[in-house]
Write a structure and sequence with these properties.
Distance between the termini: 37 Å
Structural class: mainly alpha
Strand content: under 5%
Oligomer: single chain
Number of helices: 6
Number of strands: 0
Helix content: 55-70%
Largest sheet: none
Low-confidence stretches: 20-32
Shape: elongated
Amino acid sequence: MTPRQRRGIRRLVNSRSSRLAVANLALCISMHASGVDGTTIDELISRADEAETSFREAREADRREQSSVAAQRLRDAERVRDERTGELDAARIETLSGFSGQVPEAIEKQRAGGSSWTEIALEIGVHPSVIGIELIDPRPPVFDSRVPP
Protein backbone atom coordinates (compact mmCIF):
# COMPACT_ATOMS: atom_id res chain seq x y z
CA MET A 1 0.00 0.00 0.00
CA THR A 2 1.38 3.37 -0.99
CA PRO A 3 1.62 6.33 1.40
CA ARG A 4 -1.03 8.10 -0.69
CA GLN A 5 -3.45 5.18 -0.25
CA ARG A 6 -2.78 5.14 3.51
CA ARG A 7 -3.53 8.87 3.74
CA GLY A 8 -6.78 8.36 1.82
CA ILE A 9 -7.87 5.58 4.17
CA ARG A 10 -6.91 7.68 7.19
CA ARG A 11 -8.96 10.60 5.86
CA LEU A 12 -11.93 8.32 5.27
CA VAL A 13 -11.74 6.83 8.76
CA ASN A 14 -11.30 10.22 10.41
CA SER A 15 -13.97 12.05 8.43
CA ARG A 16 -17.02 13.29 10.32
CA SER A 17 -19.45 11.33 8.14
CA SER A 18 -17.54 8.10 8.75
CA ARG A 19 -17.51 8.71 12.51
CA LEU A 20 -21.25 9.37 12.41
CA ALA A 21 -21.87 6.22 10.39
CA VAL A 22 -19.87 4.15 12.87
CA ALA A 23 -21.67 5.78 15.80
CA ASN A 24 -25.07 5.08 14.23
CA LEU A 25 -24.12 1.46 13.58
CA ALA A 26 -22.87 1.10 17.16
CA LEU A 27 -26.09 2.65 18.46
CA CYS A 28 -28.19 0.17 16.46
CA ILE A 29 -26.12 -2.68 17.83
CA SER A 30 -26.35 -1.35 21.39
CA MET A 31 -30.12 -1.15 21.19
CA HIS A 32 -30.11 -4.89 20.71
CA ALA A 33 -27.27 -5.64 23.11
CA SER A 34 -28.80 -7.46 26.00
CA GLY A 35 -28.23 -7.19 29.68
CA VAL A 36 -28.04 -9.91 32.26
CA ASP A 37 -31.62 -11.19 31.81
CA GLY A 38 -32.01 -10.45 28.10
CA THR A 39 -33.18 -6.88 28.71
CA THR A 40 -31.69 -4.33 26.31
CA ILE A 41 -29.31 -1.69 27.60
CA ASP A 42 -31.81 1.01 26.62
CA GLU A 43 -34.44 -0.64 28.82
CA LEU A 44 -31.97 -0.89 31.69
CA ILE A 45 -31.11 2.79 31.30
CA SER A 46 -34.83 3.64 31.46
CA ARG A 47 -35.28 1.51 34.58
CA ALA A 48 -32.28 3.14 36.26
CA ASP A 49 -33.57 6.62 35.35
CA GLU A 50 -37.03 5.81 36.74
CA ALA A 51 -35.49 4.48 39.95
CA GLU A 52 -33.37 7.63 40.28
CA THR A 53 -36.46 9.82 39.82
CA SER A 54 -38.39 7.80 42.42
CA PHE A 55 -35.46 8.11 44.82
CA ARG A 56 -35.32 11.89 44.40
CA GLU A 57 -39.08 12.18 44.94
CA ALA A 58 -38.87 10.02 48.07
CA ARG A 59 -35.94 12.07 49.38
CA GLU A 60 -37.90 15.30 48.88
CA ALA A 61 -40.97 13.79 50.59
CA ASP A 62 -38.78 12.67 53.48
CA ARG A 63 -37.44 16.21 53.89
CA ARG A 64 -40.95 17.67 53.88
CA GLU A 65 -42.74 15.11 56.05
CA GLN A 66 -40.01 13.92 58.41
CA SER A 67 -42.04 10.77 59.16
CA SER A 68 -41.08 7.13 59.52
CA VAL A 69 -43.26 6.23 56.51
CA ALA A 70 -41.41 8.75 54.32
CA ALA A 71 -38.08 7.48 55.64
CA GLN A 72 -39.04 3.89 54.76
CA ARG A 73 -40.12 4.95 51.25
CA LEU A 74 -36.76 6.67 50.88
CA ARG A 75 -34.86 3.52 51.93
CA ASP A 76 -36.95 1.40 49.53
CA ALA A 77 -36.39 3.82 46.65
CA GLU A 78 -32.67 3.90 47.38
CA ARG A 79 -32.50 0.09 47.36
CA VAL A 80 -34.34 -0.11 44.02
CA ARG A 81 -32.12 2.61 42.55
CA ASP A 82 -28.99 0.74 43.61
CA GLU A 83 -30.32 -2.54 42.15
CA ARG A 84 -31.20 -0.92 38.81
CA THR A 85 -27.86 0.85 38.61
CA GLY A 86 -26.11 -2.44 39.37
CA GLU A 87 -28.04 -4.20 36.59
CA LEU A 88 -27.12 -1.45 34.15
CA ASP A 89 -23.46 -1.54 35.19
CA ALA A 90 -23.36 -5.34 34.76
CA ALA A 91 -24.88 -5.05 31.27
CA ARG A 92 -22.41 -2.33 30.31
CA ILE A 93 -19.48 -4.42 31.53
CA GLU A 94 -20.74 -7.48 29.65
CA THR A 95 -21.29 -5.49 26.45
CA LEU A 96 -17.90 -3.76 26.60
CA SER A 97 -16.25 -7.09 27.27
CA GLY A 98 -17.99 -8.66 24.29
CA PHE A 99 -17.09 -5.83 21.91
CA SER A 100 -13.49 -5.42 23.05
CA GLY A 101 -12.47 -8.94 24.01
CA GLN A 102 -11.30 -7.77 27.43
CA VAL A 103 -12.20 -9.77 30.50
CA PRO A 104 -15.03 -8.26 32.57
CA GLU A 105 -12.81 -8.08 35.66
CA ALA A 106 -10.45 -5.63 33.92
CA ILE A 107 -13.37 -3.36 33.04
CA GLU A 108 -14.74 -3.61 36.60
CA LYS A 109 -11.31 -2.67 37.94
CA GLN A 110 -11.19 0.43 35.71
CA ARG A 111 -14.68 1.46 36.85
CA ALA A 112 -13.80 0.90 40.51
CA GLY A 113 -10.70 3.02 39.94
CA GLY A 114 -12.92 6.00 39.15
CA SER A 115 -12.95 5.96 35.35
CA SER A 116 -16.15 7.06 33.66
CA TRP A 117 -17.96 4.76 31.25
CA THR A 118 -16.95 7.05 28.39
CA GLU A 119 -13.27 6.91 29.37
CA ILE A 120 -13.35 3.13 29.67
CA ALA A 121 -15.12 2.64 26.34
CA LEU A 122 -12.79 4.96 24.45
CA GLU A 123 -9.70 3.47 26.08
CA ILE A 124 -10.59 -0.06 24.98
CA GLY A 125 -11.63 1.05 21.50
CA VAL A 126 -15.42 0.83 21.74
CA HIS A 127 -17.73 3.71 20.91
CA PRO A 128 -19.61 4.82 24.07
CA SER A 129 -22.96 4.70 22.26
CA VAL A 130 -22.66 0.91 22.36
CA ILE A 131 -23.39 1.12 26.09
CA GLY A 132 -26.01 3.83 25.78
CA ILE A 133 -23.85 6.88 26.32
CA GLU A 134 -24.34 9.75 23.92
CA LEU A 135 -21.32 11.81 23.03
CA ILE A 136 -22.00 15.41 22.20
CA ASP A 137 -19.40 17.11 20.06
CA PRO A 138 -18.69 20.51 21.68
CA ARG A 139 -17.37 21.93 18.40
CA PRO A 140 -19.82 23.89 16.26
CA PRO A 141 -20.66 22.29 12.92
CA VAL A 142 -18.49 23.34 10.00
CA PHE A 143 -20.37 24.52 6.93
CA ASP A 144 -18.78 24.61 3.51
CA SER A 145 -19.79 27.84 1.77
CA ARG A 146 -19.36 26.16 -1.62
CA VAL A 147 -22.14 23.68 -0.95
CA PRO A 148 -25.70 25.07 -0.85
CA PRO A 149 -27.72 24.07 2.24
